[in-house]
Model the fold of this input.
Amino acid sequence: MTRSRANRSLAFSGARTALALIFVATIFAASFAPLRAETLRMPPHEKVVLKNGLTVLLLQKHGVPLINISTIVKAGAVADPAGQDGLATITADLLRKGTKTRTAQQFAAALDFIGGSLEAEASSDYTVVNLEFLTKDLARGLELFSDVLLHQTFPEDETTKLLAQSADSIRAAKDDPQSVAIPYYCGYLYGTHPYGRPGSGDEISLATIRRDDVVKFYEANYAPSNTIIAIAGEFNADEMKSKLEQAFGAWPARTVKAEAIPPVTPSKGKRLLLVDKPDASQVYFAIGNTGVSATDPDRVAIRVVNTIFGGRFTSELNEALRVESGYTYGAESFFDDRKAAGPFAIFSFTKNETTTPAIDLALQVLAKLHKDGVTEEQLKSAKSYIKGQFPPNIETSRQLARIIASHEFYGLSDDEVNQLEARVDAVTPDVARQVIQKHFPADNLVFVLIGKASAVGPAVRKYATTQDTRLISDPGFWPAPVASKK
Done:
């Protein structure tokens, strides 16, 4: 399954928490049967750029008196200074913790009064702030929204408390290997590349962050020219433009230096990291390499093939590792599409004593994919599955606001929706074979295992010539944390 992870630096779920941005569609159909191609059309929406450089996207969706705002600030974990991993996340988490006119408690009370909700989080590529409120509360909702974006104070006490809580959460998460498998995997896969950084930071990096660092990050990145505001729901477009100009027109324009993401180089050969958790009775493992960007020309074909391989419950991986062998309760594969090539991984878990049989079987399924490709029947099933998954995932204004915001960020057009079914249907066995050879690693593999080293260490040495180990109780993930130069 191709995924877009808002922030998986400290969490991983076997459930499919989000469909990829490039595979979304539009209005909810009356039934859940696969839609016909002509019904997959992105609703009309308008793009406006204010004088200060703020990009605004407006999508009117009548019928439900709600307004949803999805805002992207083009600065995520890749913008964190070296040694201060987690700064983008801490900044986002503090947005509702106090402004020039409201304390954290006053802001929460004002939001509750209108029945609104606000979420903010940082991913690798960007920070997203989502807000929802009733149409009748448009004026108050926009006032609260502009307050949280423009008038931050980042109180010292709130910053100190959040940093301590975040560090404690990371230490606690290491008691549950499933929660930290992806930070270890990305760290080992990408090394010092920005995509290897733990988005939520680690025990060492968070200890280096101070309130002044948060203020500097905010001032450097939260600017109109670096921000996209997407609004979907029940509103009048002319009225909305006028109110947005009132709310954000005075936001001072300034130039923001775009964070350059270094090219991603796929890993060569085979490498293995064993994270030792001495009390573990299960092993969690991720196997893979770098994947593709959100704009890769093969993205739709990859989606189709990965649906067959490991992207749904009836996938080849899950059938082999769960249904037929009983080695695990679930196995999957995913591509995490980002601005540059995000990770591809096979992910599962098993008992200590079945570690090598489970990994062997996962590798056999991958080898079979390369050897045999996929059949017409498998493609037919995968295509129907993909088309059938769209409607319930794009029903609401909330979902549509997020879609148009992310499309704008990645430079994607409405064809991501409008041509989706045609592109899915265009995938043939020959196209699938080309995609498999190009994007599904076979010989160059990175292995990350979290488990009891004394129980599984000797057996897993066969998988890679380059091997590394560390204790899960060691601070940080991988590589060793970089000391701050402060």
In short: The chain has two domains: 41-248, 263-391+420-471. The CA atoms of residues 95 and 148 lie 6 Å apart. The chain is about 40% helix and 15% strand.
